[in-house]
Specification:
The protein contains 11 helices and no strands. The protein is mainly alpha-helical. The chain has a single domain (3-187), classed as Hypothetical protein af1432.
């Protein structure tokens, strides 16, 4: 099989990300968002907010991480971030990403696996910014959907503020604005 055929097979397989439903709803739409929509949204958010990263970032690398980081959900499914992540869930996601990337030519496979590992580790400027941006759409969706997911899963104010404070590691300015939106959600009764 040629490299182009390998890539095309990979592209067909990752179509399945469109069937992985997340817990949040797109603003103004009464259905759950799928993980492919989330990937598009976070990439656009990263591009639009790149000037607010704490450090200089290679935005192309950030976008690549954001496009790859949820592919393991095809096998492992999406998990609500506020509940404790188990070793089994992480292992399933890692196995899923490895299975998918095995379809790619060796050089591209190695690059994508490295980007996924970099995102997961969160130790570079790009990964810190990507991890910060990854949290933004679900927060905005909840703020504009009257706390739908927070209410459904009884997520507390302390859980939301504690977990999402990591946004500040990628962009202190962005965290300041998001924190204000979360404070407003508390005042409106969307988050308790």
């Amino acid at each position: 099989m040629g490299e182009i055929e390998q890539i095309l097979d990979f592209l067909i397989e990752v179509e399945k990300l469109k069937s992985v439903l997340r817990q949040t709803r797109p603003v103004g739409i009464n259905r759950r968002e799928n993980s492919a929509e989330h990937s598009w949204h976070v990439c656009l958010a990263a591009l639009a907010l790149k000037d607010y990263a704490n450090e200089e970032v290679d935005i192309d690398r950030v976008i690549k991480m954001l496009l790859i980081h949820d592919l393991g959900e095809i096998d492992a499914d999406d998990k609500i971030i506020y509940f404790a992540e188990t070793d089994k869930q992480k292992a399933n996601e890692k196995q899923g990403i490895e299975r998918l990337l095995a379809k790619l030519p060796d050089g591209l496979k190695a690059e994508c696996l490295h980007l996924w590992q970099e995102f997961e580790a969160g130790e570079t400027a790009e990964s810190r910014f990507a991890r910060a941006i990854d949290r933004v759409p679900p927060l905005l969706q909840n703020c504009h959907n009257e706390g739908h997911t927070w209410k459904e899963y009884e997520i507390s104010k302390s859980q939301v503020f504690s977990l999402n404070s990591r946004i500040g590691a990628g962009s202190k300015e962005l965290w300041g604005v998001i924190k204000g939106k979360l404070d407003s959600a508390v005042e409106k009764g969307f988050l308790k």
